[in-house]
Write a structure and sequence with these properties.
It contains 16 helices and ten strands. By secondary structure, the chain is an alpha/beta fold. The protein folds into two domains: about 210 residues, Periplasmic binding protein-like II (D-Maltodextrin-Binding Protein, domain 2, 3-Layer(aba) Sandwich); about 100 residues, Periplasmic binding protein-like II (D-Maltodextrin-Binding Protein, domain 2, 3-Layer(aba) Sandwich), CATH 3.40.190. The strands form two sheets. It has a five-stranded mixed sheet, with helices on both faces. Strands 7-6-8-5-9 form a five-stranded mixed sheet, with helices on both faces.
Length: about 325
Amino acid sequence: MRKLLLATAAVLALTTAAHADSVRMSVGSYNLNNLPFPVAESLGFYKEEGLDVTIENFAQGGSKVLQALVAGSTDVAVGFYDHTIQMQAQGKHVIGFIQLARNSGLVLAGKNDTDFDPAKPETIKGKNVGITAPGSSSDFFIRYYLKQHGLTDDDISIIGVGSGAAAVAALQQGKIDLLVNYDPAATIVVERGLGKILIDARSDEGAKAVYGGIYPTSVLYANQDYIKANPQVIQKVTNATLKALHWMKDHSAEEIVAKLPEDFVSGDKQTYIKAVENAKAIFSEDGKFVPADLETPLAVLKSFNESVGNATIDLGATYTNKFVEAAGQPAKN
């Protein structure tokens, strides 16, 4: 009887795998804005929805994921909402279908002895400023800061340094003077005594001070044609990711980190737990896009991005809430 049960279980497993929907998902980096994605994967929520997910991690930043999506080498991108605006300005239709992080999560950090003073913006002149990658939201952050204070890109050197441990090392080794990055890098810099946070956009108040409003960041997005052709896959991805958002809301930072694979955790575990705690406020609770908040990244991009500035952008075509609304309220795990 036991052999029969085992054989039956094996057949059922093979049958389930055979009927799973394949989807390629790419993530720009494992910064904490994207945390609901690895949480959903680690807890098996994608598998529960009947998905066979192939994951590629582009540690260089979200702009590389966007390139992969446009090139057709990935189906779903884990990246930042502002990329959908960029693509519309270029005549491409990329649509966000669930929001992961409702706010920026970015900070500008410097060494403890830095002479840059945010109250005196001109003191940034001549500095080497590290970002995740050219064309990323960290790039937009520093360019918008310069624009707002009557400075230009020529006043500084902007250098791609990635995120997490690589970004921290670049600051520690003196390759850069200032760092624009996310958690866990932001918390690691402070906890290790390597530097201090000079501009903090993780809180709503900080984001409003930097951008003039809430700045939605991490989302799942896909090409319009893919969404139209594969609505059942998008729905399953949405269902699983929404489960992760609800699970994260109901669990502590320590419990969240305990579910992540070891190679995901940057630095020592206790510091990483603090980073997750610091980042918890930025995550969406319901996965929905708030139309009014989307005006902020549009305003930021228009200020320095010529193609966006010259385009008539229809924000309503950059996102959809229909898949989140169809998912309803998932059972808590």
